[in-house]
Amino acid sequence: MTEARTTLTFLHTGNPTGLKFFVEHGDSRCLFDFGREHAPGRALFSLGLRPRLGRELADLVAAGEAPAVEGVYAGEPWDGRTSVFISHMHLDHTALVRHLAPEAPLYYPAEMEPVRAGADSSGYLPWRRPVGTALADRETVTAGEIKVRLLAVDHDVPGSTGFLVSTPEAAIAFTGDCRRHGLHPELTAAFAQAVKGADLLIQEGVSLGYLPPIPAPPLLTEEEVIAELALAAAETKGLLVANCYGMNRERVAGLAAGCAAAGRKLLLEAEMAALAGWPGVLGDLEAVRADPRGHCLQLGFDSLPLLLDLQPPAGSVWIQCGGPPFGSFDPGSTVLEAWCARFGLELRTVNSSGHSRPGDIVRTVREVGPRVVLPVHTRAPEALVVVGVRSFLPQAGVTYRVADILSGAPTGSAPRGTHGRSGRSSPGSR
């Protein structure tokens, strides 16, 4: 009888988004996150192109935007061994959850539930039925010989978590998406202490290798962003439009407080209001047209044509503060600029990333002190260099023995339960 071994398979390394991976030991398999890559203009289904009605999953798999794995999707037999864990609600971590087999155990942080329920009820992100199990922070789930413990981190959406995954062979920590410049840096610091000494650390690295535009915008904390939005609410002479993301409930609450202090009524589009849990929903535009100085609107990219009806007066401002388009890499940015220019809107960007800055990534790795760190969720994993900690750069679609990664001599193989995908050996270490 072959001895059970712990293996690690990345279905997508998150370059730069869409991270998802398996940890397996014996007959048990745990899947962490199940979203789609956000790549406007690069992904086949982007810029308004959608999978065909009634063929959504098949189209996504055929286009490479959903993994070709067996035993996890609705419409085919569940494999009886895969449990699914979600770190937070962002679409690059959850967009495929609707396609999960109803029998597969599904777990997510309890603090995430209000955003999940709002996304589901509004149609923004329909969720699987049954919805799964909401777990408290620091709660542990046992799946065969694998134990998974939730450990809260600070991100720009409520209820974000990292994980400590324990098997008979190894302790594997996964940061999830996290930061130390948000409103709750103590959560991320506590995560690092709780997983201290883990064998492997799967570390998010969105900011690694990032080259800011010239001139570079200031690096703001979440607190500073909220203060800037409040200042804009007070000083803008005309209509204030804030393109924020409803899942960032703390930012919406901060914007609302600033608007209230400035005598503005904050109104959000219906889906964003549901995500934010905000009662003010944008409806009839006449009140806004009559009193633009008394209002602040959340409008997304798709709502730019509303400017034709609003006819914002001189002194109006559009602030990009978390909603798409996300930057110059997004083709929508030039379109947004054109609309703002056409209507004389001053276009500003006031934002704070939900992801750790490079120095804080290094700090987390040092505090955890793993035997090996795996930088993922980044275009530049090779940019993570921490003295005294060996890095391993995994490839998607390859199954690695964790013991081999730890020994420094990993080889890869095709994972079990794939639809015709071939693996290949990869040294990966440096």
Task: Give me a quick take on this structure.
By secondary structure, the chain is α/β, with parallel strands linked by helices.
Word description of this protein:
The chain is globular. It has 2 domains: 6-210 and 354-413, Ribonuclease Z/Hydroxyacylglutathione hydrolase-like (Metallo-beta-lactamase, Chain A, 4-Layer Sandwich), CATH 3.60.15.10; 222-349, 3-Layer(aba) Sandwich (Rossmann fold), CATH 3.40.50.10710. It has helices spanning 56-62, 91-94, 113-122, 185-194, 222-235, 249-262, 270-276, 286-290, 306-310, 332-342, 358-368, 402-407; strands at residues 6-12, 20-25, 28-32, 82-85, 106-109, 133-135, 140-143, 146-152, 161-166, 171-174, 200-204, 240-243, 265-268, 295-298, 317-320, 346-349, 372-376, 390-391, 399-401, 412-413. The strands form 3 sheets. An 8-stranded mixed β-sheet has the order 6-5-4-3-2-1-19-20. The chain has a 7-stranded mixed β-sheet with strand order 7-8-9-10-11-17-18. The longest helix is centred in the middle third of the chain and has 14 residues, at 222-235. Mean pLDDT is 94; it is low at 420-427. The protein is built from 12 helices and 20 strands. With 430 residues, the chain is α/β, with parallel strands linked by helices.
Secondary structure layout:
Blueprint: E1 6-12, E2 20-25, E3 28-32, H1 56-62, E4 82-85, H2 91-94, E5 106-109, H3 113-122, E6 133-135, E7 140-143, E8 146-152, E9 161-166, E10 171-174, H4 185-194, E11 200-204, H5 222-235, E12 240-243, H6 249-262, E13 265-268, H7 270-276, H8 286-290, E14 295-298, H9 306-310, E15 317-320, H10 332-342, E16 346-349, H11 358-368, E17 372-376, E18 390-391, E19 399-401, H12 402-407, E20 412-413
Parallel strand pairs: 3-4, 4-5, 5-6, 10-11, 11-17, 12-14, 12-15, 13-14, 15-16, 17-18
Antiparallel strand pairs: 1-2, 1-19, 2-3, 7-8, 8-9, 9-10, 19-20
Helix pairs in contact: 3-7, 4-11, 5-6
